[in-house]
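User: Predict Response regulator transcription factor's structure from this.
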Amino acid sequence: MASARILIVEDEILVAREIESHLQSMAYEVVGIAVTTNTVIQKITESMPDLVLMDINLQGSQDGIDMAAEISDRLKIPVIYITAYADDSTLERAKLTNPFGYVLKPFTQQDLRVAIELALFRQQALRNEPSITSGDTLPASGAGGLPPTKLRTILCYIQDNLTQELTLERLANEVSMTSDYFARLFKLSTGKSVHQYVIHQRVERAKHLLRQSDLTIAEIALECGFANPSHLALHFKRIVGVTPKQFRHF
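Assistant:
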């Protein structure tokens, strides 16, 4: 998504300008720079960015974590933290806001590129998931699949952890179910087994990165959770019909 619109929230203007330069060289549109949290909401409502890059230590009535929580709750816009803070207490607070990425300073342009591309991919994937509402309930027989809240939880968990080993047991534990029961309800909900769904999501992420990034195929394989480029190529050709290299050059 080379045309993505991005708002920078950073109170060190030199750092903000460095980020802006990186984004422009990657063909992203910078819609503004906010230096205090007091102006962020106004800038977002005026420009409606696709993504917000958020420093944590900011001037204003809130810090970046409080601001990100408000953006997520009110405006549903993804946030990536760009910060020098990696202590346990800061990370725990940041995790509660469900960020789409966490980039530590000092960073490289490639660090930014990967974080942004994965965040935009995750946002698009979430938009494409079947619509479910908080009022939906699971029929007593279990024939309707996972309850909506558990389905939403597990789909987000898969998107956030595609680079990890996503075993059936690990996923079932995330929603406090036995493996067999979870596997049956998951397939009823998605039409795919857990393994099939994970592979398809990894291939979809690979397609996105092949088209929208300069990462090598070996780097993309790792970013998508495949063991190696051959593992990626095997599943990619089976699902897409062409090799990753052929897909990139179409």
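The chain has twelve helices and five strands.
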